Amino acid sequence: MDRRHFLKHLAAMSATSLLSVHIPRWCAWAQAGESRPHFFMFVFASGGWDPTMVFEPKVGLPNIDVDPDGVVTQAGGITYLHNVDRPWVKTFLDEFGSRTCVINGLNTQTVSHDVGTEIMLTGDAGAPSPDWPTLISSNTGADLLLPHMALSGPSFSGTLGAGTSSGTGFLSLLLFEGSYFAASATAETVIDAYTTRHFESTLAHLRGEGRTGRRFEELESGFRRWKELKDIKNDLGSDFENLDGLGDEGVALAAAFERGYAITGTLEARGNWDSHSNNYPAQNQAFDDTFSGLHQIVTRLASRPATSGPGTLLDQTTVVVMSEFGRTPKLNDAQGKDHWPITSVMAVGGGVAGNKAVGATDEFQNSQLVDFATGQVSAGGLEITAQSLGASLLALAGLDYTQFLPASVQPFTAFRTGV
After folding, report:
1. Could you tell me the residue range of the domain that residue 374 belongs to?
2. Tally of domains in the chain
3. Is residue 176 pLDDT above 90, yes or no?
């Protein structure tokens, strides 16, 4: 057995003793008194994508360089830039454009990777603020063992700590080696047998010495949760084996939603997004890979029945796809594009008013003021920010966003249904 894997397994198991959550019964959902929970899947393209490659075609403008092989194309009410070298974009929008809303012109107010990531996921930077999925999971699924499953991508638990965010300890137990490789059955059996013997021996020794105080109870509780996690892994089965990329991870997360183990999750949209050189080929491949994974995820969600009530799992799941900022309007000397604070976001599924794009940028790719109810350009409107988007996502989850954000923040509701 690989010693590194063995030590990592023990470290992950020890981490669970710090938590105080409970394993749910089979799909025994209890979300703020609701029998039909609302799930959220966040997909993050770390590195900074170029919105003009897909989301907001800016063809024919002298101040903005655009993919020369791109063709302005329509999918229902969504106008986007198509390229035959990124076919999955067209495939996805042709099939799921009616469930998709594109949000353009969001101002992150930064060109820093780390700061932009934190702002997009929490609405702030430099403060220990929990991210949107952690806030949602801690307030609507805190009784679950794995309320927020950060399978990949960035995660900020903030002041709420590991009790509401799965973290690497949990994921190492579920996935063994990150989210890419599963342990062999033989290795799992050997590790489980040793861990059980080790803990039972340790607990017996402590009992014999009369050391059964608070620390003993934490140790015993941690061991119990480890066993519960192993049960979850067995229940999730093949959906959590040999995960390889965004699509597989999204399918696994959907399975965790269905079985009542999680209510939110984050995933990484892998690719060479930080395209300071050769912008078009790098972004082209990253977008194609990402939309291929999204197609796999949304197809799974759309093909499964809702956990309760009518409709599908997609009807009760909101998929949010974002990046920490955009790319500059003009190419640099290396045919790349540098960091730019204006970006786009895509929302798909439950609660999303699909078949449209909202928000906008001008001929210099600066964000425009828009009416937050309609998403259309308005001289009396406001600028879309991460906070205004986050406020609307929290409200969609049934939360009072004013408890988590400054009183001045107004929710950007133009991408939502029934608002």
Report:
1. 23-162+243-403
2. 1
3. no
